[in-house]
Amino acid sequence: MVTSRFTRPKGSDGESSPNLYVANCGPAVGLSFDKIESVFSTFGNMRGVYPADESGTRVIVSYLEESSAQAALKALSGHPCKDLGGRVLHIRYSILRPASQVQVNDSVPVYLVASDLKIPGIYLVHDFITSKEEEKLLAAVDNRPWKRLAKRRVQHYGYEFLYETRNVDTKQYLGELPSFVLPILEKISSFPNFVAAGYDTLDQLTVNEYPHGAGLSPHIDTHSAFEGLIFSLSLAGPCIMEFRRYSQGTWLPPLTTSNDVTEEDNDHCSNFTRRIIFLPPRSMLLLSGEARYAWHHYIPHHKVDMVGDNIIRRNSRRVSFTFRKVRAGPCCCDYPQYCDSQR
């Protein structure tokens, strides 16, 4: 869900602001942001035009000066605007939401494309599956038993991931991956990285269900547990994922946390490099090479995420399917400072 950084001021509609909430106006009614800006800019210098919500029929027009907003409201509100298709605009003042109501990602930009992260080995494929395929996958896991952790629910297939040791017991084979993920495995097998790695198949799947606001502590999937490709499919809701490279090698939460720690617990080490990407529903994330072996990945415990000029409100649930291949021997990667096999 997309909402604006702006909201209606408390008190009367007469409370002035350099920002205007404009209804009956937007892409869904055939008016581009550029067209809207060209009309409203005649009243003064603008910061820009932003979506007010996800409807596409309401926008925020933001000026540098209050007087410009006042002039635009007086001239355009409640009157047909011939330059905007003759539509009658409904306008009121708007203000920025207080910082306490908006989770802002500090000063780190949120990228939409993996290549912009400048981290070797990260790939993100949007719309990897269709909405109907998403519905079938969610229905399939909801018909199976969940295991409850502190802040989320999980299912394991192939091999169970043991959170106490952050590893798998290769002697405890749970059987082949379920038939409902076979179409996903077939799509994954066409990845050039998959072919180059010489994989025949993936044999471990963890399904995570995150309730509204729940996240995941910074971690690197244990080197000795899994091979070099990790595929994660996002379903049902969006989130941001942060990548961190710690200068001293690693950051580890307490072993008993099941990767469920609080926001305050995971920033005691400030000496790290950060990158953030937005993961929309139905997207497939691949971690390989440096991204898999040397960068911690982390989902902040947010109820809303700031992405560009929009606030993305997380859904009531987000479900991820993480596919991996269990490692048969020790890891011999090129990142010994992060590798449990080489320490």
TrEMBL record:
GO terms for biological process: demethylation. One of its GO terms (molecular function) is RNA binding. InterPro entries: AlkB-like (IPR027450), AlkB-like_sf (IPR037151), ALKBH4 (IPR032857), Nucleotide-bd_a/b_plait_sf (IPR012677), Oxoglu/Fe-dep_dioxygenase_dom (IPR005123), RBD_domain_sf (IPR035979), RRM_dom (IPR000504). PROSITE patterns: FE2OG_OXY (PS51471), RRM (PS50102). Gene3D superfamilies: 3.30.70.330, Alpha-ketoglutarate-dependent dioxygenase AlkB-like (2.60.120.590). Keywords: RNA-binding. The keyword Cytoplasm does not apply. Residues 18-96 form the RRM domain. Belongs to the alkB family. This is Alkylated DNA repair protein alkB homolog 8. It comes from Nelumbo nucifera. The lineage of its organism: Eukaryota, Viridiplantae, Streptophyta, Embryophyta, Tracheophyta. The gene is LOC104610319.
